[in-house]
Amino acid sequence: MDIKDLRYFVAVYEERGFARAGVLLETVQSNVSARIRRLELFLGVRLFERHRRGVVVTDKGEKLYRHAKRVIALLEETPAAVKGKEAA
Question: pLDDT by residue (tens digit) across 50-86?
Fold first, then answer.
């Protein structure tokens, strides 16, 4: 798992679909699907229930979303923290 996996996960969660997440991330839907599949295998849980009209997040996906948002925020704040600047 890496930060890009979490960013893709958050995009699918917020966009409620792999194709829409792909547009947001400027990549193809198959790349998004592959990242999410790899993340699900790594964690050993289903994060989304896939349907023709999009996706529905699972309970485990809800938990990961809250955690992923914190992790991403911390990583984005890290350069300023190291340089001794206040986060915006």
Answer: 888 879 999 999 999 999 999 999 998 888 888 887 6
Report the domain count for the chain.
1
Q: Is residue 88 part of a domain?
A: no
Residue of 78, 73, 77, 71 whose CA lies nearest to 39: 71
Q: How far apart are the first and last CA of the chain?
A: 28
Burial class (CB in 10 A: 0-12, 13-18, 19+), 48: buried
Domain that holds residue 7: 3-83
